């Protein structure tokens, strides 16, 4: 039983199985997006289900901080325009 498990782990390699690699790649893309947003002054918070529900937008030039509750009744286009205009001041 242990030999079978060892053989299975060796076959997967250091990167893990295909499912693990795909999950990690998806996580990497999400982390990259969040890092970009954060560098622009936008922090996005997720709820317990993983959906994004709140954004904190900072405008360092004006010293402003805006907290935005994200509501699904508004489009992503609306929020992107709102975030951008808030960051521009």
From TrEMBL:
**TM annotation in the entry:** none
> What top-level branch of life does the organism fall under?
Eukaryota
* Gene Ontology CC terms: microtubule organizing center; Ndc80 complex; nucleus
Task: Spell out the family assignment given in the record's similarity comment.
Answer: Belongs to the SPC24 family.
Protein's job: Acts as a component of the essential kinetochore-associated NDC80 complex, which is required for chromosome segregation and spindle checkpoint activity.
The entry describes its oligomerization and partners as: Component of the NDC80 complex.
User: Which keywords annotate this record?
Assistant: Cell cycle, Cell division, Centromere, Chromosome, Coiled coil, Kinetochore, Mitosis, Nucleus
Native organism = Aspergillus indologenus CBS 114.80
Q: Does the keyword Nucleus apply?
A: yes
Q: Which GO terms describe its molecular function?
A: microtubule binding
Return the protein name. Kinetochore protein Spc24
């Amino acid at each position: 039983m242990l030999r079978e498990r060892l053989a299975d782990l060796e076959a997967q390699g250091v990167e893990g199985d295909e499912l693990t690699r795909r999950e990690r790649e998806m996580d990497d893309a999400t982390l990259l997006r969040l890092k970009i947003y954060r560098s622009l002054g936008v922090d996005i918070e997720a709820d317990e289900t993983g959906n994004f529900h709140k954004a904190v937008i900072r405008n360092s030039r004006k010293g402003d901080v805006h907290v935005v509750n994200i509501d699904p009744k508004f489009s992503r286009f609306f929020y992107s325009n709102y975030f951008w205009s808030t960051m521009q001041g």
